[in-house]
Amino acid sequence: MAGTCVVGLQWGDEAKGKIVDLLGDQFDLVVRYNGGANAGHTVVVNGKTFKLSLLPTGVIRSNVTSVIGNGVVVYPPRFLEEVDQLAKVGLDVSKSLVVSSHAHVIFPYHMEEERLAENNTEGKIGTTGRGIGPCYQDKVGRRFAVRLGELLRPDHFRERLAQIVPFKNRLMLAFANGHPAGYKTFEPNALADEYLGYAEQLRPYIADTPRMLHDAVAAGKRILFEAAQGSLLDVDHGTYPYVTSSSSLPSGIWGGSGVPAKHITRTIGVVKAYTSRVGQGPFPTELDDGPQGIGERIRRIGREYGTVTGRPRRTGWLDMLTLRYTAALAGADEITLMLLDVLSGIPELKLCVAYEIDGERRTHFPSDAFDLERCKPVYETMPGWTEDITAVRTLAALPHAARRYIDRVAELVGLPVSVVSVGPDREQTIRV
Ligand code: IMP
């Protein structure tokens, strides 16, 4: 059995979906192990473009089983909506999609809790508003969490909500204290009715996924693990507290799916040719250079707007310190360099090769967000290229400066580049 992981090495949105798509039919199962509907990937089915945020990208392949692992947090209406969207274009996933009975359930009070926390207190994180953080908080807190399997036991589920919801309502009141926009409260029975309705539709999809995956491993099936978010958003190793609430690194696979790490034999680190970030938090190589600047140019050409929230993404130069750090944490065997075409026409490109902090030069990434905030980037400059490279299909046909850029990135990360992407389409790919 060969387990492969596709993981982003930056702050998310590295175009991981395209790599999963390129790996094509090499897998029998595709597994998501972390996050929830905060992820965003664009997929094309029967000529129609979709934005999926909860279902794995692999769901569009009918011969592949898609698994939403126990480490994912599930908002049932979103799950059903995405399944429905796919059905409308003729893609029936009822036989190919499963979700863990141990995945935790997101309720509207999680979103309200998040909204109030983000609006009303200091320390805004700039979250996606999908209830991800509050749901994971409940998961580790244990008392107020609900797992998907519990929705299949109506009496028990009603009792749970009768305990949880009044507590949540009191929490909202405390959070909203003095908040001009007020707050929402919830009614346990109405919420139970709503969710028991979803449960009937979800029932055929709910499964004991760890056991299923163990059987797949024993049968020598090929499994692809699809990380959501990026390594710098990992709750343990990212730029805490400006991170998501799950383990986006491959270390999350074991806990979030039940498949032990020893079965992962290939880890592909996906890297954008520049850097982007949504939400708050330090970003040393950010290009905050105004409406005519390179940062805005990259945002416009790279269509750097959040898939989930539509927020403009912050953009900046490629940072080799972050990449060395995340490649080491992920155990990446290779990297893929995405969106290289977006850099065409920029006269001079910069790679961050060190930081200066308090007058000292550092070549290691300080994972502490407060140290990182004080870091000034030290750049190496490289000539850019003017040619449109979106139709190029071989390394040899790339402008010399583009080849030098790729080689230098590989040298500084210390890993081979296996794929260079020069456009969103499957064909716009150079296999190295
Ligand atoms: P949360 O995951 O909604 O709690 O948001 C926490 C941080 O992670 C925020 O900065 C979000 O913008 C960021 N984030 C969450 N999911 C993604 C993603 O899929 N791509 C990029 N950033 C993300």
How many domain units?
3
In the predicted model, the low-confidence regions spanning at least 5 consecutive residues are: none
Shape: globular
Q: CA-to-CA gap between the ends?
A: 25 Å
Give the CATH architecture of the largest domain.
Alpha-Beta Complex
Distinct bound molecules: inosinic acid
Beta content comes to 15-25%
Q: Assign the CATH class of the largest domain.
A: Alpha Beta
Classify the secondary structure makeup into a structural class. Answer: alpha/beta
Average pLDDT rating: 94
CATH superfamily annotation of the largest domain: Adenylosuccinate Synthetase, subunit A, domain 3
Helical content band: 25-40%
At the fold tier of CATH, the topology name of the largest domain is: Adenylosuccinate Synthetase, Chain A, domain 3
State the helix count: 12
Sheet of most strands: 10 strands, mixed
**Taking Cα atoms only, what radius of gyration do you get, to the nearest Å?**
22 Å
Describe the structure.
The chain has 432 residues and is α/β, with parallel strands linked by helices. It has three domains: 159 residues, Adenylosuccinate Synthetase, subunit A, domain 1 (Adenylosuccinate Synthetase, Chain A, domain 1, 3-Layer(aba) Sandwich), CATH 3.40.440.10; 99 residues, Adenylosuccinate Synthetase, subunit A, domain 2; 161 residues, Alpha-Beta Complex (Adenylosuccinate Synthetase, Chain A, domain 3), CATH 3.90.170. Helix content is 31%, strand content 22%. It has twelve helices and 20 strands. The strands form five sheets. The chain has a ten-stranded mixed β-sheet, with helices on both faces. Strands 14, 16, 17 and 18 form a four-stranded mixed β-sheet that branches. The longest helix has 22 residues. Bound molecules: inosinic acid (IMP). Inosinic acid binds next to helix 4 and strand 10.
